[in-house]
Amino acid sequence: MSKKYEDQTVTEIAAEFEETALVDENKATEPNSPKRKWKQFLTVAIMCAVVACLGINGCSSEAGKPVPAPRSSVIDQPAMDTTLTGGQMLTIAPEQVESAGIKTEVVGEGLALATGVVQANAYGDTPVFSLVGGIVRRISPELGENVQSGQTIAVVFSEEFAATQSRYLDLLAQTDEARKNYERTTKLVRINQPGRTEFDEATSQLKTVEAQLEEMKKRYERTTKLIQIGASSREELEQDTTKLRTAEAELIKARARLERARQLLEINPATRTEFDQATTKLRNTEAEL
Fold first, then answer.
1. Of 215, 199, 202, 204, nearest to 248 (Cα)?
2. In principle, which of 65, 206, 257, 289 could form an S-S bond with 186, CB 3.0–4.6 Å?
3. Which residue, 12, 45, 60, sits at the end of a domain?
4. pTM of the predicted model, to two decimals?
């Protein structure tokens, strides 16, 4: 094939032959003459030969060379700078796009679904400790819910705390008994009838009651702290408060009686030992309280 045909596309060559055929038809005087039929046959044969030669020449010239993929596709879009270096451009007509079922979509942001496990951050965990051991009876917040400082997380029933409360009530009873003994001894001292030993026992009991009252104050403070964190009930706090106030009042009375007993001892030194014993017992009982 000549250089001219190599540079032309198949469409251009077919167009030239169609123009030649049209010119020959215009020149023909008889539409159905044998000469016109012969020219048409010759035109078709030449077109087939040209197409075959171009295909063979293209295959032989491009053999062994990589064919670059189309760089871009133009489909009824505004004019763009399609200058490419060393590549080819494929242009598709709208009819071809429709017949081939090609669709265009705008690429943008979208949703993506994936499976996973949600876990709390290790640095965001805060351990929770109870002041006493026991059984958890109630948990206020739900799993994963945010909590604040001072909020009640759980209510714990403690056997240790219950045993301590029972011990406290027992000490209150002992303190009351020691106080009564002290009062009785004080009365005996007033009339100078009791013996020295009995009055000393009343003094010792007063000291015991004072010591028990001091212990009761500590337990009351502990119960108050438990109430603040929700680890104890309001009823327990009210009971402890009432018992503490009663113990304080009884202690005031015991000290007043002790003072009167000391005044009596100045009058009757023989009863001083018994009075001291009663005072000591009362203070010891208060220390254990």
1. 215
2. 257
3. 60
4. 0.27
